[in-house]
Amino acid sequence: GAGVSQSPSNKVTEKGKDVELRCDPISGHTALYWYRQSLGQGLEFLIYFQGNSAPDKSGLPSDRFSAERTGGSVSTLTIQRTQQEDSAVYLCASSLQPGSYEQYFGPGTRLTVT
Amino acid sequence: AQRVTQPEKLLSVFKGAPVELKCNYSYSGSPELFWYVQYSRQRLQLLLRHISRESIKGFTADLNKGETSFHLKKPFAQEEDSAMYYCALRRTGGFKTIFGAGTRLFVKA
Question: Which positions in chain B touch A42 (Cβ < 8 Å)?
Fold first, then answer.
């Protein structure tokens, strides 16, 4: 079956513009995670969804970042008024259940803010 | 503070040589430890976790609570082991996973 998919694969945007990043998890996976990987850094946890709810949003770097999930499936990460420091690879992962040890990762979206 | 430290950004070994990728962690409580791997042009994937105590692709990792370490080892490296390796931890049964910065392993012929 299909794995986690993300779109777009690459996004170049001008500073100050808003961007939306999309994640399609594996069908039936109830848990969904967003991470950010900046150059030379490890993965930084951003937010986690259990169904359509996000119990913990503390990883979001600022109020310019928001995320939602609908129908227990697709999730969108929105970055408003992008800044150059937002440039990174944004990874999405899903797992069968919250607390499942194995997360399945998507290919990532490379965001470049010029 | 919860932290995962991988002191080596790059590790280069010859084929057939032993390899050890270091991982140290800081966590108050009982964490689960993982190693993830990302091969060239592939997705990040789970390699192994400490609870299972299994060997995957010849790799093993032992959790040393006294030294707060979870080093990844393989007695004889292969060229196909060349990849980026990430050590990670989370609270047992939790959802927030903390990753180290990663170590790039390069196995030379």
Answer: 4, 6, 86, 99-102
3-state secondary structure of A29: coil
Q: Which CATH number fits domain A23-103: 3.40.50.2000, 3.55.40.10, 2.60.40.10, 2.70.40.10?
A: 2.60.40.10
DSSP states along B55-101? -BTTBEE--BTTTTB--EEESS--GGG-EEEEEEEEETT-S--EE--
Mutate to test the interface with B, among A45, A56, A110 (most CBs of B within 10 A): A45
Contact status, residue A107 vs residue A9, Cβ threshold 8 Å = yes
pLDDT digits (tens, 9 = 90+) for B56-75: 899 999 889 899 999 999 99
B11-39 pLDDT, tens digit each: 999 999 999 999 999 988 888 999 999 99
